[in-house]
Amino acid sequence: MSQPAVRHAVVLAVVAVLTGAGSAYGAFGDRPLESGDRGQDVRVLQSWLTRLGFPTTVDGAFGELTARAVYRYERENGLKRDRKVSRAQARRMRRQVEGEGAGARRTGDDEEERVFTFGERALRRGDRGRDVRVLQSWLARLGIPTEVDGAFGARTEANVRSYDEWNGLRVNGEVSRSQARLMRRQVEEGMDLPATPPPGGGDAKVETSGSHVFPVQGTHRYGDGLGAGRGHRGVDVFAECRTPLVAAQGGEVDYAGYNSSAGYDAVINGAESGQDYIYMHMSSAPLVKAGDTVQTGQQIGTVGETGNASGCHLHFELWSGPGWYKGGDFLDPLPALRSWDGQQ
């Protein structure tokens, strides 16, 4: 090849790198996205999910946290719950972010409503919008169950005050820009605030009526309960490894998978109670998947010690409607477990 031809080829290669011509997927929506994908378009997805009230880390890697956030987004928007992002879904998300899907505050009678991302403005009682939804969702993620409705009301203000107290901040029930940055870091690091119940937390009535069975199908003993240690929001039931686990109440599987803390776990929304039943530390992948309908007493896995666990046991949680990290309250499941176990 002649020198001019070589120089021309080099120039074309440099231009391809600079313009992204070497990559078929430069912009969000150019390709469907699913677990395992990486790239700038994944970062955009993660940023937009967070902005729309479904927080996840923004690292460009479509992992378990992102898949969970996509699932919650799909459920709230009435979409197929496959934890994947189609091109059409990306267009829908773009419309929501660029249009009414973000927080807004009217600054004057003759001014247009301005769109805000979480942390762009201070938040206080009376504010409404998607940035308020992000705040409420992140409070729940950090262990302060809060209804996610986009309205900064009395309950949200009380929970912000609890957040202030637990972080040694000035207790005023408002969220400054610097406080929003702190909260973002805590969520991205997976921080769990102390288990002291926030106002109203843990006080909702546990559903013990209707059709229930005890989830551990074998010899067992009770371990730590609600509030035993940092962030412990359930009851541990110890049993031999690989003892069958069954659904305490049938319903729809909201989530089934793995994470570093809970290990293999599953979340089932009860068909009768409307409460979420959470089963953690299974020995292997759950026998059900998100979207499945299970029956009361159906086996969903086996007792194990995956994740952050010592000894084979089931960590069992109950959350009131609308559910786990969706604005429900964590409940003390021990009375219900003893009732189902015949140990009043």
TrEMBL record:
InterPro entries: Cell_wall_metabolism_enzyme (IPR050570), Dup_hybrid_motif (IPR011055), M23ase_b-sheet_dom (IPR016047), Peptidoglycan-bd-like (IPR002477), PGBD-like_sf (IPR036365), PGBDSf (IPR036366). CDD domains: M23_peptidase (cd12797). GO terms for molecular function: metalloendopeptidase activity. Residues 82-94 have a biased composition (Basic residues). Keywords: Hydrolase. Residues 38-91, 128-181 form the Peptidoglycan binding-like domain. Residues 231-320 form the M23ase beta-sheet core domain. Residues 82-111 are annotated as: Disordered. This is Murein DD-endopeptidase MepM and murein hydrolase activator NlpD, contain LysM domain. It comes from Thermoleophilum album.
